Batch of 4 targets.
Target 1
Amino acid sequence: MEIVFETNRLYLCVLDDSHLAAVTEFWGNEEVMVHCDGASSNEVLPRIIDVYKRCHGTHGISVYAVKDKESGKVIGAAGFNVIDSVNTIELIYHYSKKSWGKGFATEAAAACLEIARNHGEVQVITASASPENKGSLKVLEKIGFTFIGMKWFDDTQQEEPYYEYRF
């Protein structure tokens, strides 16, 4: 398990095959992913892990497993989707329902900003969330993202609040 960043309560680690059971608790859970185009099937989850692992190897930045230091368990994922280049990346975060409401998303998202800052090539971080997902929108505002406006997203088939963070 390669640790990329450490906070007071969390480790952010490169995703690998050992995280498969844990990611089913969030990416494979319909209730958790209701605002994000639905849960991923058990067949797809190993490929998602592999894509993020390769992304870290290629770009030096990716989506990471979020591990609670106290319990030693992976409770979620946070980090960046790299679409065309590392100049503009998308922040995402998803957590198992048991870990909601404990400040983990805010702590890990703030750590992600430091990862991006330390990377050196990132200029803009984008983020969005379903209008109904008030918790995620609050996290973005807490860590300093700027609301840009509403934007249509084909994957969720809805207009969502769109945010940016610029270095």
Target 2
Amino acid sequence: MTPTRPPFLDGLVASLPIVMGYFPIAFSFGVAATRAGFSAPEALLLSLIIYAGASQFLALALLTSGAPVLVSAFTLIAMNLRHVLYGPALMREAGREASARHAWAWAFGLTDEVFGQALGSLARGQKFSEAHMFGLGLGAYASWLAGTAVGAVAGGGALEGWPALSAGLGFMLPALFLALLLSILSRRQLPVIAVAGVVTVVGTIVISGTSGILLGMLAGAMTGLIRR
């Protein structure tokens, strides 16, 4: 009989693809934060508290441009409202018997990529485990903090001689999330993805990027409910 890993350790192992994707992007954020005038501890504190991936780069742009703190906060909240749906969607896939006793804690680490990885595990027949979710989220979170710290210590000029690398790092987050979603893609989900994609693009062009994301999220959710 093949020995099985404890769920927490299994979650840490499952987080490795996310860890490898998060570290270089977080490094880029640490560099950008120090370039914008933040100290290394301040840059690390932004990742420690906000932990919002690409939205942290937007936070830098807003704060350094003199935008009011409340405006910056509400902008970031609007951009990340989709995360409110991740927990319920994950628990629906996990089934009614799945425990959510400590969801208040592991839900903090439920980023786009962690959600995609967890959903993929359930689609492959793995039983839901809160310990697994803690391991999965902790691995990703630790990688983001470590990357931010290294980038902040390296300083604002660390990527000046590598413009192509700097540009490429910005694409890694959406590419990683897309790869995780494609791994669990089925024909039944195509109409939902198509509707969400079209509405997002149209909303972004006609209104704004934030509005496009919100409208695409709502359109995809409504399409999913109608097709159930």
Target 3
Amino acid sequence: MYVPKHFEAPSVEAMHELMRTAPLATLVSSTSVGLEANHIPLLWSPDPAAPSGCLRGHVARANPLWRNVTGESEVLAIFHGPDAYVSPGWYPSKQEDGKVVPTWNYVAVHAHGRLRTIDDRDWLREQLTLLTAEHEAGMASPWQLTDAPAGYIDKLMGAVVGIEIVISRLEGKWKASQNQPVANRDGVAAGLAVSGRAGAARMAALVAAGAEHRT
């Protein structure tokens, strides 16, 4: 991923947080039939042996991913944060010289590593329990695996296979108008805040946070 210095992720912790809060990853792998992409929720967790942590999840047993990707093959998990179109009409500098063009702001994290498949019911049950607890937190009545009949869960577990990726390299891009002068950043934040488009409010907050530094 091309990452100019002014668009670098603010910290490793910020990348970890994005993976936790936006866990639906695009998992890209190289197979005998070419590149393949699967969309899988992955749970990030710290790992004593890997400074960047570990990703765990599961796929359908019918999904050829777990058979086609060996332990020697590197995979790429892409996590997507907020994104938004940026209109040049929001830049005050447009009135000065007109030298502005549209762009797109976005946040993304790329996690590289080797994929390991785990066909073990105890491991899988623990992973499903942790994944469910993570995303049911905050619900009025959090659902748990034990809420469903044991036989039903056992049958479904037989239809999935666990996957694990120890992250070997982590890179992030926070493109939030940092390359613009403060007045233009303020204009972008204001424009996004009232645009009403999906993701615009979250991006407006990121742009505004950068503008406050007045760099």
Target 4
Amino acid sequence: MSGQPVPCSPAELSTLFLFEKLDADQLDRLCREGRVEVFEPGPVYTEGDPATCFFVLLEGTIVMSRRVGGDDVEISRSSQRGVYAGAMQAYLAGADQARYKGSARVNEPSRFFVLPAETFSAILRDWFPMAVHLLEGMFFGSQNTQRAIGQRERLLALGSLSAGLTHELNNPAAAAVRATSALRERVAKMRQKLGAIAAGPYKRHTLEILVEIQERTAEKVAKATPLTPLEASDREDALADWLDDHDVAGGWQLAPTFVQAGLDTDWLDQVAAAVDEETLQGAVHWLNYTVETELLMNEIEDSTTRISHLVGAAKQYSQLDRAPYQVADVHELLDSTLLMLSGKMGPGVKVVKEYDRTLPKIPSYPSELNQVWTNLIDNAVSAMGGEGTLTVRTALDHDNLLIEFRDTGPGVPVEIRDRIFDPFFTTKPVGEGTGLGLDISWRIVANKHHGSIHVESVPGDTRFQVRLPLTVTDTSEEPS
């Protein structure tokens, strides 16, 4: 500190709102055990330094700031006589209270009344013992409440994600079970039809051609491309007409399956050329079982792949088998979170991804960043009432990686915009929010990753912007 000591006046102290109720002896003690100092433009104290003094502004302007990433972000500025800062919680026991929670500077010569932290604590305990006990109880009670609610919020979030994951897993699992049951039935019928064909009057060359067509059919099913509804309808009509013209029973039932497999009348012509008219119907139905079998196996493969992706997303989201601190790709983290929350978002929310895939991986705590994404996405979906567009964008912003969540909700009112990151502040109805989601997100981003969260909002366009440094920083500070 660069303060210059000047005489202390009890009469001047008595004019401050903080000391106006003190008697003459108390004012004399303050002047005797404290001091008045003049600070030239520059720092008064720095965030993280030992909290050695309690400061009361007598004259000038004090500017308060917090460190966010590599920058000091101004949080307040005041010229009101009597405003105070510094070791305001010196009366509390514990190392956590022994350091300044922010920085203070002056931009003009300013006078302060300065009390050493130990003296400030002793005076409070001597003069206001009951108030000290009440303040201690309120402070530690608030901390315990915040910790308990934070744990409950994480449990509620885990329960919600578990329910969503169970729902998402149930759909492909049920589809795989249904497809497996249908596949067993189709294979059984294929064996029966194969036996009928083998017992029929087929020549060996004809059977070889049918087997060759079967193999080529399986390949076409694997490479089938999706058709528009109009194209599919036209092809179904053409196939049904071909089957009717060749006296193949149940053509209207076979046609949709053949269209789904990517087959057309040219394929049917090849089948008709390989067999005579009497055995065409049996051959077509036998090949239909082949087509159905391939389609069912595709369905099983799609379902099990979906399950595998969901399990992988859950694993990525929770980072169960990863080191807590690692170099991670934020796009993988965002994708896993979006997938985990897809069931909760519902069909009314359209998700748009605007990723810059050229961005590098960054040093981070991935599981905690996933918690940040969860809170911001959940808030956006809640703000939109389940109807709207959520846009997730990544970009390079100087030496930071920008992750932006944009929703089309009604926006954050100007009068509360500065409070949304405060602990316990919430705009949700009673019972629907704890007011800790954004506070936890801010502490994870700012304290643990040395980044920042900023909100810009107008009706129909609300953007929460997270900036994370690209380079390795000191991550030793845990979010409290």
